[in-house]
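Example record used in the benchmark description.
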Amino acid sequence: MLKVGVFGTGHLGKFHLNNWKQIEDVKLAGFFDPSDDTAKEIKKEYGIRRFKDADELINACDIADIVAPTTAHHDLCKRAILQSKHVFIEKPLANTMAEAKEIVKLAKEANIKLQVGHVERFNPALLAAKEYHLEPMFIEVHRLAQFNPRGTDVSVILDLMIHDIDIILSLVKSSVRNVFANGVNVLSDTPDIANVRMEFDNGCVANLTSSRISMKKMRKMRLFQKDSYIGINFLDKKTEIIKYKSPEDKNVFTFDIDTNHGKKTIAIASPVIKENNAILAELQSFVNSIKTNTPTIVSEIDGYRAMEVAHLILEKISHNQIT
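Model output (structure tokens):
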């Protein structure tokens, strides 16, 4: 039985509490939250113990689930790793690159399991797309959200775009060569809307737009590669594939086109989406990694790489704003 301590029981922390209760061989040891009002609410709703001292909860658990504000990630994570506890930590991995680098170093030295909460990796629309051979050479992303004062302590890059940065880095098996970025502070002190162009050594180009000043929500990614197009709607949980028809394509809509190489048959497929609870899936996968001693799906290295690109983007935006 793995004992879990949840650090931070705000909006997202409550989702974690609900999902931990559904996983076999896991027991909630308690929670840590500095807010007395929040703690009172959690104790009443979940009937679990509140720890007023973070180290006491770390000592009482096998897994530290860190859902606290980003500024507290490094401190809580470091304390847990030094006690040889496994760590699930929400994105972004840390508040600064120096903090992220130390977490990566400590996790390797302690030989513990660490997973970063890039929950979109578990979105069923993306999982359906991954059933196909993905080698994108051009990527277009739009992630738009309505304004919410909660979360504006960090830029739209670290709040929203980092999801797509992580996914793109996991799909494109090449190093980032260049990054171009522009952003605007609209209703907060950090960029609220940004447009980014990432260029990779293999020639792939990714254009990303993220905004938290939008009238409607949108979370779409379009992948273009040789002989096929893949559209992923993270919000509506839909995936569309347009490609040259192959013998294994069954029950798909097709039509013929004339090309310089003769007539070609185009197939349009809408893969069956296996509905899931993405937060439950990521926590379950973390538990499985611990039990089977296998790598986590979103490792501390993945979290570091996403942060590295995100901070490079912030530097580019800052430079462009000054000049």
